[in-house]
Amino acid sequence: MHVSIADLADGAADLPPLDGDGAVRDPLVAVDLAPADAAVVARAVRRARDCDRILVGVGAGDRDLVRALDLTLTGPAGGGPESVAAGDPAERLAALRAAAAHSPQAALVLRDVLRTTDGMPVGAALDVESYAYSTLLGGAEFARWLASRGPRLLPSDVKDPVLMARDGGVLSITLNRPQRRNAYGRQLRDALVDALRVALLDDGISRVVLDGAGPVFCSGGDLDEFGTAPDLATAHFVRTRAGAGRLVHRLGPRIEVRVRGACVGAGIELPAFAGRVVAAGDATFRLPEVSMGLIPGAGGTVSLPRRIGRWRTLYLALTGEPLDARTALAWGLVDEVLP
Predict the structure, then answer these.
(1) The pTM is what?
(2) Which of 138, 185, 188, 314 is 20 to 30 A from 29, alpha carbon to alpha carbon?
(3) Count of CB atoms situated within 10 Å of the CB of 79
């Protein structure tokens, strides 16, 4: 569906979002941002704030309307954090449509979570993310992805999944599962949480440096462990009360994360909570969860919007495409890129 500002103001995007069987229809609506009368724009803003679909603006438009939308694609000159510069906006729009059509439930839940948690305290926002994630774990889109995975690898114990070293007031923490590109599995997660708790409990530690062994900081969640929690309620409590995101957030300016290689899922969701993120020039950042019928579940719907806004977070998560280090620096996802 492609509408004008006047169409949006008149409710063109407000048709029932579900068919008679409860399936999502037309999850994404494009909005042509050609100039319109101020009164019409004001009505469109009100409609956009209440709409149940993903609204993607195309072009340059009124700031209030652009902020009310879920994302805006602009020309190469770009714009503020509500927009993504695109050499070919039509091609980018097609990619977003395809992603939303492939996993419409996950796409709409992601959009709702990003809007709902905007401005929420971090702890409460993480709970909302996890409730939504648990809902999608029980959905058909995730079941489809899980079935496509085939047999799982047998879990293997890791001797030292995280290494710690202390030099005065500086605690160095290193993810140490390079043979699996430091995948964020149960053992590594638990060991990282233990290390972060040491930093929080010891007043003598003034600085924490987190990095990863090998060429990749973290390739995201261990796919062989996806969907293995005994039930959805347990999965929620493990994610929120036994995860590392809250602890990295609590360390705030005391923690610096050094990333490199392909940082996927948790590989950027957790660092984005840190006071400082330093990226190697070869670092790329990707959120693939929507294509799996899920949303980011390691805190990414909370940490990334606080750095780059909910609009660009939606773009990254919906497309699942990698973001290079220099663009990440320009957006504020990282604070420094090394030569």
Answers:
(1) 0.93
(2) 138
(3) 16
